[in-house]
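Ticket opened by: R.M.
Priority: normal
Category: complex prediction / small molecule

The reporter submitted a protein together with flavin-adenine dinucleotide and asked that the result be attached to this ticket for the collaborator who will pick it up next week. Submitted input follows.
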Amino acid sequence: MCDGALAVQSEGQGAPPPYTDVTALPAGWRWRIPLQHRYGNGYVYSSRHVSDEVARQTLVGAIDERLLHEPRTIRFKPGRRLKAWNKNCIALGLAAGFLEPLESTSIALIETGIDKIKQLFPDRSFSPVVIDEFNDMSRREMERVRDFVILHYKANRRTDTDFWRQCREMSVPDTLQRKLDLFQARGHFVRYRWEMFQPASWLAIYAGFDLMPQSCDPSVEGLDTASLAGALAEMRKAVAGAVEAAPTHADFIEHNARPIAMAAQ
Ligand SMILES: Cc1cc2nc3c(=O)[nH]c(=O)nc-3n(C[C@H](O)[C@H](O)[C@H](O)COP(=O)(O)OP(=O)(O)OC[C@H]3O[C@@H](n4cnc5c(N)ncnc54)[C@H](O)[C@@H]3O)c2cc1C
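Result attached by the on-call engineer:
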């Protein structure tokens, strides 16, 4: 659905939060990325549902700090190269394809791409079967990311704009529909080859949108609920303890991530 983005930097203010903020907007979503000295902000939107000017006003209106420049407009067509590897040339990163950054997958796809090159490193013959395997793996991985990103739109509950209504009503790839059907039927997580996102990530989106299963897998019916509740309580305690002991994000950057030249200033 989305085919455009506006990006603008704003002044850094106070301690940076340790996460990127993503907020749904009338025709897409907004990102807010804390960097060491500034914020990166943007609005990814569907140009069929909002004009560039209205999108610009919405984005600028949502930013409290001083802008460091005028918002830049970017048009994109999501997709991938049919052959990431062709003859003796391999495309990685943006050269291989682009999916909107809702789940920040670009760098991970570059890393897994490098791993695939290592696994299938060619000899001088550049065997077509090796190249086909690389292209098949790359296609599957990108399609699995695509499905996960589409889920965020498909599962939305908003009724306030045509954009969100149409996202909910759109048809989705069979591979995603199958996952949705099996999860809703009995809480089953389908895992295809080359899935980047683990069941915990899928659950976060299903549960976040209140897409709960109608029944459960029969294998869990015999579980002792008291010991399960005990294990979950222990887990909650361990997570709370780790959060309590963690330094603030600003402290962590100060001690571990400041470039040497800047630390010396
Ligand atoms: C603020 C910010 C935050 C981001 N956060 C994340 C994140 O959390 N997770 C994530 O996965 N991604 C994130 N991204 C996106 C990610 O950084 C990019 O997708 C990734 O860097 C793309 O890498 P690339 O090597 O494909 O392309 P690039 O990094 O764009 O590299 C292309 C290189 O090619 C050079 N070049 C271009 N044309 C030519 C030419 N004709 N001849 C020679 N050289 C040329 C360019 O100068 C550049 O150095 C973020 C991006 C930004 C801006």
